[in-house]
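Weekly sync, protein design subgroup
Attendees: M.S., D.O., the rotation student, P.L. (late)

Item 1: inverse folding check
M.S. brought a backbone from last month's batch and wanted to see whether the design step gives back something sensible before we order anything. D.O. pointed out we never logged the input encoding, so this time it goes straight into the notes. Structure tokens as presented (309 positions):
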């Protein structure tokens, strides 16, 4: 199978490694000419390998050979399978920049936080097979082409414009066993959105690790208000979230990732644009559309926009 990957960040390179190891013919699409010029055709992945006893872990470093090309490289054939792993605020423009190279019935898989771009691409391109996913894989870049696989998570994917279709989920299990088909990808994306609304902006504002949100009474009380508003919107849209209240689920995720700094914390600290528009911003848009008051989420949204400016 042939795959093109747009977005050579941590998740993009992680999937490039999974595809390459499965024997898929994989190509990285690099938008930044300076980055493309420094790429030597391979990248490094550092991962933990379980030794004789499960408690004994060793770091293992491997070289992954995957070719890369510019978006407008001449004489490149049509793209049949495209994985987009850019930041959520970039994915629509990234998609539009490669649109002309897509085969008529190409498959697009979007793997990023937040909501909005996936739905826009699916609505505007009914002839394409548009898939979206949510992952708890942990990976980060040490440098442009050195990937650290921090944790093995689970990925759920589903087709936005035909939820019954399981074809891609069945195919991708060959390169990632911890992948399952989501028969309701809309609800799966909402679950991830709800957790991100609960955790990400607060960690950026309080400048804390995820775990402190559940262990610190004042932060937890704040998170409770956020969660209550998110639940009001999800319930109005008849989107099921979790079997337990969102605050309990958010505390569980915060505890499971207690030592991590959330992606939004890191973006704000490093003065990068964050994904607030497609996380809390998306929630606020949906709330406004249905006239549901979400004052605390609105306040957080404005606070993060000010912080990142
Ligand atoms: O965006 C993130 O950092 C993660 O999605 C989450 C769930 C907050 C855990 O760190």
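Designed sequence read out in the meeting:
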């Amino acid at each position: 199978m042939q795959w093109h990957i747009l977005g050579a960040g941590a998740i993009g390179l992680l999937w490039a490694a999974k595809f390459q190891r499965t024997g898929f013919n994989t190509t990285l699409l690099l938008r930044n000419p300076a980055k493309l010029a420094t790429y030597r055709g391979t990248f490094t992945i550092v991962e933990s390998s379980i030794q004789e006893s499960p408690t004994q872990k060793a770091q293992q470093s491997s070289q992954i050979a995957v070719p890369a090309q510019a978006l407008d490289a001449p004489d490149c054939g049509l793209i049949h399978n495209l994985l987009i792993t850019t930041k959520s605020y970039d994915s629509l423009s990234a998609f539009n920049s490669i649109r002309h190279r897509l085969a008529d019935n190409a498959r697009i898989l979007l793997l990023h936080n937040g909501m909005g771009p996936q739905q826009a691409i699916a609505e505007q391109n009914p002839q394409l097979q548009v898939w979206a996913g949510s992952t708890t894989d942990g990976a980060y870049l040490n440098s442009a082409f050195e990937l650290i696989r921090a944790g093995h998570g689970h990925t759920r994917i589903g087709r936005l414009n035909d939820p019954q279709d399981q074809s891609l989920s069945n195919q991708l299990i060959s390169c990632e066993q911890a992948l399952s088909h989501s028969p309701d990808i809309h609800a799966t994306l909402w679950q991830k959105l709800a957790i991100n609304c609960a955790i990400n902006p607060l960690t950026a504002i309080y400048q804390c690790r995820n775990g402190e949100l559940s262990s610190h009474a004042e932060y937890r009380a704040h998170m409770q208000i956020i969660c209550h508003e998110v639940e009001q919107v999800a319930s109005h849209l008849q989107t099921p979230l979790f079997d337990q209240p969102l605050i309990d689920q958010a505390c569980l995720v915060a505890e499971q990732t207690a030592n991590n700094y959330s992606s939004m914390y890191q973006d704000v600290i490093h003065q990068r644009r964050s994904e607030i528009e497609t996380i809390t911003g998306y929630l606020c848009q949906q709330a406004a559309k249905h006239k549901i008051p979400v004052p605390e989420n609105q306040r957080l949204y404005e606070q993060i926009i000010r912080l990142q400016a």
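Discussion: The first helix runs from residue 10 to 22. The longest strand covers residues 102-111.
Action: P.L. to compare against the previous round before Friday.
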